């Protein structure tokens, strides 16, 4: 508080008494008082007054003396938007009207008038109370100080250059950009470059009464500081939901573990702080971000008590991304609904959590990996929960799923190159049971890369037609969404049931599929089932073509373990990767066709009886059940089958 007064008043005693009341009330409010009247020894008076007024939050002037320099002090305060209280002794002269005609706070001109001084004391207290909840509130004070710092920074640039200079124009552009962002939103919206987010967010810690909720969407790169081991954040946040890609639970253990280390440190640094973890798939699809389609990611800052929320969106000119804060009761309610929808699908992170513990909590909450006994072989009849979470279910039941798919795709690529080298013609592909498109998505980039040189030279493409069939319409929808523009441009998705829907008057060079052969083969029916399978393949495969299938197959006699031991190892692998014992047992019980499938040796004998040659049985990981099998149909004109 900047306090200035003069002894040149009609009555000195009442002045001293009034000043004692002022200083006592300021002391009760823990205000630091700079009494200018006690600093008259300073030589550079003008600079000192300017500096101290810039630092103050409130100016209190005793104006009874009518000193000319009072106009300078009050004028400076008015320009800086600093609130001013003018004290006047009763019966003293009024100040000039062009001074601003402030409302004076009068005190008695007789020190013995206790009743009048009590009235003055009460009036001063009410005035200070009103200012403290208004223009002297912490937010007002901090923003005025920040504005003063900004003003001094600009002034330093001006002082540093006596003449014209490029820095002056650069600073002009920055200042105009900032002022334009403020004008764009007015009093209810703050728009800033996203790089300012951390400082804006950290500044909230100055208000101890504000409780912040936040969503940090780690699937977007708009908050890169979370990638760091030492995030530059220090806020009064009460809880935060971290949105991650669900694949981190299955394919990104190292990355998720780094996040876990960061979250653990955050909980240890701050008290009363809760962290939740969710994926975008866990959010109710009906929930809408308050910025809707304008938002970049699902990041959200929510201050419910102040009806304020914020997030990232593109600037209106389509350029850089901006961080926008809005103060609006109705729209904040929408933000609150969205936040609660995200929180509903999240699991709370505990300091003791590691990767497997957190994954197990997430799987259990969303019942991921739970096999419903009502699910039958007819996949198209299964409920939406099966399809919506299929890619996650599959990775729970088959911990080696990604490796299985990748090895199958690699085997298909090898067979394409083998056939292409022998014929020089485009190779046509048929994928059986494309599912959500996971295998297809691994093959298509390779095809594009392989096709580029041929297209540049005007040659025939290495891969001609790529057809993928599946019996479930829901799988078609998921695959179309996943594969995007490649559908119909690079691959044709067909709703067909193998083998009823797959025409036998059309032939392909490579027929392949992953996790589909156990649907098409029935070991309980005996060798006839395997013979029929390869006979149907032969009808649709050109001479010289190949079959590639990855799946769970029974153990061969030389595997060193029996079928029960192999299934037990599979079960243990599910549990070690986060699936509960209940869910693991449920899957094993519900899928006897996978646990009691034909062995690779049995399939090799059946294939040979139909004219095929086995050229590979590649094991996946350490589990003896999972393999990629490759068979070739010899060219009828060849003297001997290729191996």
Automatic annotation (TrEMBL):
Occurrences of domain Methyltransferase type (ranges): 430-547
BP terms from Gene Ontology: methylation
MF-aspect GO terms: methyltransferase activity
Keyword annotations: Methyltransferase, Transferase
Gene3D superfamilies: Vaccinia Virus protein VP39
InterPro entries cross-referenced by the UniProt entry: Methyltransf_12, Methyltransf_Superfamily, SAM-dependent_MTases_sf
CDD domains: AdoMet_MTases
Domain of life: Bacteria
UniProt name for this protein: Methyltransferase domain-containing protein
């Amino acid at each position: 508080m900047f306090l200035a007064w003069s002894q040149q008043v009609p009555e000195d005693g009442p002045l001293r008494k009034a000043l004692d009341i002022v200083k006592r009330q300021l002391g009760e409010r823990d205000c630091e008082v700079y009494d200018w009247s006690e600093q008259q020894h300073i030589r550079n008076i003008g600079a000192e007054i300017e500096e101290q007024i810039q630092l103050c939050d409130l100016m209190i002037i005793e104006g009874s003396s009518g000193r000319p320099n009072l106009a300078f002090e009050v004028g400076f305060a008015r320009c800086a938007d600093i609130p001013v209280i003018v004290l006047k002794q009763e019966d003293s002269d009024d100040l000039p009207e062009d001074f601003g005609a402030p409302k004076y706070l009068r005190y008695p001109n007789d020190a013995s008038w206790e009743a009048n001084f009590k009235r003055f004391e009460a009036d001063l207290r009410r005035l200070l109370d009103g200012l403290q909840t208004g223009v002297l509130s912490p937010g007002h004070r901090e923003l005025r100080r920040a504005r003063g710092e900004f003003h001094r920074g600009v002034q330093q640039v001006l002082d540093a250059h006596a003449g014209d200079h490029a820095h002056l124009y650069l600073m002009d552009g920055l200042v105009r950009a900032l002022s334009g962002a403020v004008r764009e939103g007015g009093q209810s919206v703050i728009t800033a470059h996203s790089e300012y987010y951390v400082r804006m967010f950290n500044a909230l810690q100055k208000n101890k009464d504000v409780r912040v909720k936040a969503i940090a969407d780690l699937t977007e790169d708009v908050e890169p500081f979370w990638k760091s081991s030492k995030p530059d954040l220090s806020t009064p946040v009460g809880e935060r939901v971290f949105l991650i890609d669900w694949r981190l639970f299955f394919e990104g253990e190292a990355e998720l573990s780094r996040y876990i280390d960061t979250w653990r440190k955050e909980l240890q640094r701050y008290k009363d702080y809760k962290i939740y973890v969710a994926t975008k798939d866990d959010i109710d699809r009906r929930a809408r971000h308050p910025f809707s389609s304008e938002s970049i990611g699902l990041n959200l800052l929510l201050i419910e008590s102040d009806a304020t929320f914020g997030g990232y969106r593109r600037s209106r000119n389509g350029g850089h991304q901006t961080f926008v804060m809005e103060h609006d009761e109705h729209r904040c309610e929408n933000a609150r609904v969205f936040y609660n929808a995200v929180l509903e699908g999240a699991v709370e992170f505990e300091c003791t959590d590691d990767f497997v513990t957190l994954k197990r909590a997430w799987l259990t909450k969303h019942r991921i990996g739970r096999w419903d006994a009502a699910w039958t072989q007819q996949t198209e009849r299964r409920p939406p929960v099966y399809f919506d979470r299929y890619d996650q279910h599959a990775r729970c039941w088959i911990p080696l799923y990604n490796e299985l798919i990748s090895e199958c795709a690699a085997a298909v690529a090898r067979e394409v190159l083998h056939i292409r080298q022998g014929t020089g013609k485009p190779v046509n592909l048929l994928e059986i049971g494309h599912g959500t498109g996971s295998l297809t998505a691994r093959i298509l980039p390779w095809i594009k890369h392989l096709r580029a040189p041929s297209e540049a030279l005007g040659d025939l493409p290495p891969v001609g037609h790529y057809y993928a069939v599946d019996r479930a319409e829901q799988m078609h929808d998921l695959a179309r969404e996943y594969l995007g523009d490649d559908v119909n441009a690079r691959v044709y998705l067909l709703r067909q049931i193998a083998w009823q829907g797959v025409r036998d008057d059309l032939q392909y060079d490579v027929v392949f599929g992953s996790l589909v052969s156990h649907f098409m083969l029935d070991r309980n029916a005996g060798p006839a089932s395997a013979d029929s399978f390869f006979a149907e393949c032969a009808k649709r495969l050109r001479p010289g073509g190949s079959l590639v299938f990855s799946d769970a197959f029974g153990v061969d006699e030389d595997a060193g373990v029996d079928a029960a031991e192999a299934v037990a190892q599979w079960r243990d692998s599910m549990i070690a990767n986060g699936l509960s014992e209940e869910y693991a047992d449920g899957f094993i019980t519900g899928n006897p066709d996978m646990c009691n499938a034909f062995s690779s040796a049995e399939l090799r004998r059946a294939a040979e009886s139909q004219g095929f040659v086995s050229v590979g049985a590649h094991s996946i990981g350490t589990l003896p059940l999972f393999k990629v099998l490759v068979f070739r149909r010899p060219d009828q004109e060849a003297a001997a089958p290729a191996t």
